[in-house]
Amino acid sequence: MSRLTRIIATSFMATLAACSGGTSPDGSQTQSPPPPPPPPAGNTVAATVGLAFTPNSLSINSGESVTFSFAGVAHNVTFDTPDAATPADIPGNNSNVSIQRTFSTAGTYRYHCTIHPGMAGSIVVH
To answer: Are residues 100 and 77 in the same domain?
Structure first.
């Protein structure tokens, strides 16, 4: 094999190994992709890019907090029947953030996103 052919073959092999992962020409291991993020905590409601609250209904115990996790599309949370026991609304256009609210009194707290009609959910507190 000519010197030029060996250089081209070696370059091709190095490029192929770099693009496909696995073992490089020198025998070392290439990095694997990072692991997926951990699942959200049990008391998390995700406001998804699919314009839904997931889960649609969440049951918790009195005194527990719920994390509202807003994805890449702007959402907010407005409680339908605010009273002294209802946590504060989460106003604005929230995306790529998580905000917590604590529910201290038993009851059902219905909420909706004012940006996306029909996007609603509830927290049931025992």
So the answer is: yes
